[in-house]
Amino acid sequence: MLRQMERSTIHLLAKRGKSRRQIARELGLSRKTVARALREPVDKQPAKRVRRSIVDPHEEQIRQWLRQGLTGVRMLELARADPEQPYRGGRSVFVGRVCRLRRELEQSLADVAVRFEGLPGEYLQVDWGEVRRFPFREEGLRIPVKSSTDSDSDHPLGNDSSAGEMIMASSGRHGQW
Predict the structure, then answer these.
(1) DSSP 131
(2) Of residues 53, 49, 48, the one with CA closest to residue 92
């Protein structure tokens, strides 16, 4: 397996006009390896090795046991006692897979969106801004930011009654919130 630096060196020597045979001799590689490296991109990532584990046949059963809340030791006992396909591997391999699957399950549960519900008027989200120009009018509409809890003394607008006033510059009308 060639590293990126070796691939880069092969491509550089080829650009400088050296033959494949000269590059192979200089770097101590096979001519076929040099030819393959020249066909492939310099930044080619190595293929990931897929290794089968002795725990693989029990993975779905482990997921079910995790949903039931069993411990890793109990799962190992049950897997070894399985009459169809008993687990014959070591404890650390089995418990390591259980830990990885438990993390995946917890992550999938954490990624679920939580619905935020309340009674009408119980919660309030205020998203105000300022619109300076409308395409159909020359004058703009100015809306001040209004707090959802006007009685809070730590709010910048305080308990000022003028904070609840809306001014529509385009029509000159005033109104209360």
Answers:
(1) B
(2) 53
